[in-house]
Amino acid sequence: MLKRPLSFVQEILKQHVVENDIVIDATVGNGNDTVLLASLVGSTGKVYGFDVQEEAIETSKKKLLLTGLLPQTELILDGHENLDQYVSEDSRISAITFNLGYLPKSDKSIITMAETTLQAIEKGLARLRKGGLVTIMVYYGHDGGLEEKSQVTDFVVNLPQENYQVLKYEFVNQKNNPPFLFVIEKK
Ligand SMILES: C[S@@+](CC[C@H](N)C(=O)[O-])C[C@H]1O[C@@H](n2cnc3c(N)ncnc32)[C@H](O)[C@@H]1O
What we know:
By secondary structure, the protein is of the alpha/beta class.
């Protein structure tokens, strides 16, 4: 009955993102969210996808090629904290997804970091259209994860209520640091 946070966020994106939208996948990884977003924005929309690992960009490029979704996707081998170099301030982005942590089945020492994640969220919020969403899947069971969880939580809970609504979706009786979700909606 109850969806896990990852399924829940995918449902939200499917309901929210429509053809022609411009969106950002801030942590491309294996490209699962990038493929979903590229299918939702269609051939007239655009997905900017960021990752610092070449392996992630290459794997995702293959998936997008195979699914015919590469034309509407710009994969960028750079940190999401530099998104202002690629996405203009008047872009009116409709959704930005973050999947924090490390690339599954890969080098666990390459993780998203609090400082750069927060820079990216701030730059992303400045480019988000009214009604746009930032989704943040917080994985924190790995080394360094607790620090990022704490700083991201501190940032989002202090966003001004006049400008943003912030939702937390979390199972509260599970062991082993289960991931949870923040969704920020710009009013
Ligand atoms: C949990 S994985 C993403 C999973 C992905 N959404 C998927 O569908 O497979 C986190 C990714 O963030 C990337 N990453 C780490 N630091 C980053 C940064 N500063 N900017 C962009 N991506 C970064 C890692 O290389 C890793 O691939």
